[in-house]
């Protein structure tokens, strides 16, 4: 028969092991939250770009449907899309061929007018 030891080995985790596990879990949760935040920002950016592209395309279609040869110069118009307040800046530039004009449409967010979201270019012909 074995003699009973005065110090029995206790089962369970030490405080140090619990703290290390908490640090690992906390780090994983922090990384997950950052990844979700990044995905949300990317989703908002893609949505803004899509809406701005639609606004620019709508503006260019209106120009084509007007069937007039655009005058050179710049003009700015509001071109909201959905719940986004957007600003379309139209710039008509002469080309070496007097029967062709280049139309550039830049779309900006009204809240951040210094940041261009999208730019579309169209060539307009004088029939």
Automatic annotation (TrEMBL):
Top-rank lineage group of the source organism: Bacteria
Residue intervals of the Type II secretion system protein GspI C-terminal domain: 46-120
Compartment(s) where it occurs, according to its Swiss-Prot or TrEMBL record: Cell inner membrane
Entry comment on modification after translation: Cleaved by prepilin peptidase.
Keyword Transmembrane helix recorded: yes
Any matching Pfam family: T2SSI
Protein keywords: Cell inner membrane, Cell membrane, Membrane, Methylation, Transmembrane, Transmembrane helix
Membrane-topology annotation of the record: Single-pass membrane protein
Described function: Component of the type II secretion system required for the energy-dependent secretion of extracellular factors such as proteases and toxins from the periplasm.
PANTHER family listed in its UniProt record: TYPE II SECRETION SYSTEM PROTEIN I-RELATED (PTHR38779:SF2)
Protein family: Belongs to the GSP I family.
Subunit: Type II secretion is composed of four main components: the outer membrane complex, the inner membrane complex, the cytoplasmic secretion ATPase and the periplasm-spanning pseudopilus.
Protein name, as recorded: Type II secretion system protein I
Source organism of this protein record: Janthinobacterium rivuli
């Amino acid at each position: 028969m074995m003699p009973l030891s005065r110090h029995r080995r206790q089962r369970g985790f030490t405080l140090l092991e619990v703290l290390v596990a908490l640090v690992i879990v906390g780090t994983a949760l922090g990384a997950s939250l950052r990844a979700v935040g990044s995905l949300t920002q990317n989703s908002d950016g893609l949505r803004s770009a899509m809406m701005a592209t639609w606004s620019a395309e709508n503006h260019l279609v209106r120009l084509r449907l007007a069937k007039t040869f655009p005058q050179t110069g710049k003009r700015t118009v509001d071109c909201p899309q959905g719940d986004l307040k957007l600003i379309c800046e139209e710039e008509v530039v002469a080309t070496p061929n007097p029967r062709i004009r280049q139309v550039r449409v830049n779309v900006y967010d009204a809240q951040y007018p210094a940041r261009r979201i999208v730019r579309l270019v169209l060539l307009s012909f004088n029939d």
